[in-house]
Write a structure and sequence with these properties.
It is built from 14 helices and no strands. It has helices spanning 3-23, 29-52, 60-73, 77-89, 106-116, 123-139, 144-155, 174-178, 188-204, 228-235, 239-263, 271-280, 287-301, 308-318.
Length: 331
Amino acid sequence: MAEENFLSIKTDLAGINTYLEKHGIKLSEQENKQLNTIFEACDTYDDENKTSGKDSKLNLVELGEFYNKLKAEMPKFQEYFMVLINSLKNNKIENNIKNSNNTFKTDDMVKNEALKRKKELNENDIKYWAEKIDSVAKKFNIPEALLVSIIGQETNFTKNINSSNGAGPMQVTLISVKDFFPTPKNDWNDIYKEMDEELLNDILYKKDDNGNFVKNNKGEYILKYSTPKELREACSTDDELGIKVGLLCFEMKYVKAVAEKKFGKATFANVPKIIKGIKDGSIKLSAAENKECIKTALKNYNSVFKTYANTLVDSLAMHGFKFEDLYFIKE
């Protein structure tokens, strides 16, 4: 990293608050903390140079040491702030982030999440993803920011994707969907049903033109997919289905994360206790505890990349996500 690049970053950072205020853009609490940490580090370094009689202009050796210190303190410093700075300079983060209900608009979240990952979506694509995310989030009472952040990380808003890692916008794997299906040897199906029966049924079972579930002559719901593989493949051709399946997978990861916190590990025996406790209010978590459980759930959702969960938590904060509540399991 060249000396002039650092000085340019420092200058840009100093002007960010003015830009934000001028354009009515409000950063999350976490983003403000990160900015303030950078400001303080820059000021401290300059003060030390002035006290020692050094030229305040950093030489390359000192710059490398200082930059490594920043990287150690905030691993996402360079990537996160360079994207933020470039977005501000190019006027790509606009003055309509919040709607009249004081919540972040899904289309803006989609647009800014993609920009954070250096991808510009056209208006049709932004509308496409916002509509599908809104549809799932509103129907199942889930924060849009959660879906936006996971989709951004998994596939960066790529339509109808099917890869070796997974299918659909949230990269569903075959092993993840096997436990959805009711079979004589699969007791996890009952736990999924207890956790979120509405979402599970919406994914698995056929409906008629009026939206009612179709039943056989025994009065049982008829499966829409004959095998888990068929469901997984369907996620690659139906992005809204892929979002629903990914959401159900995440919900179970979240319940298991709470079980790990409360019991040390998640088992077939204690996961139902967690679901019951969340629903009846006997299990309560602070915002900090819930944030850690969400981070654990995200880490377990994708165990490939070590920085995955931290990146997603940063995205959630950027989109105004609140960590105070247990969002994911409803009575």
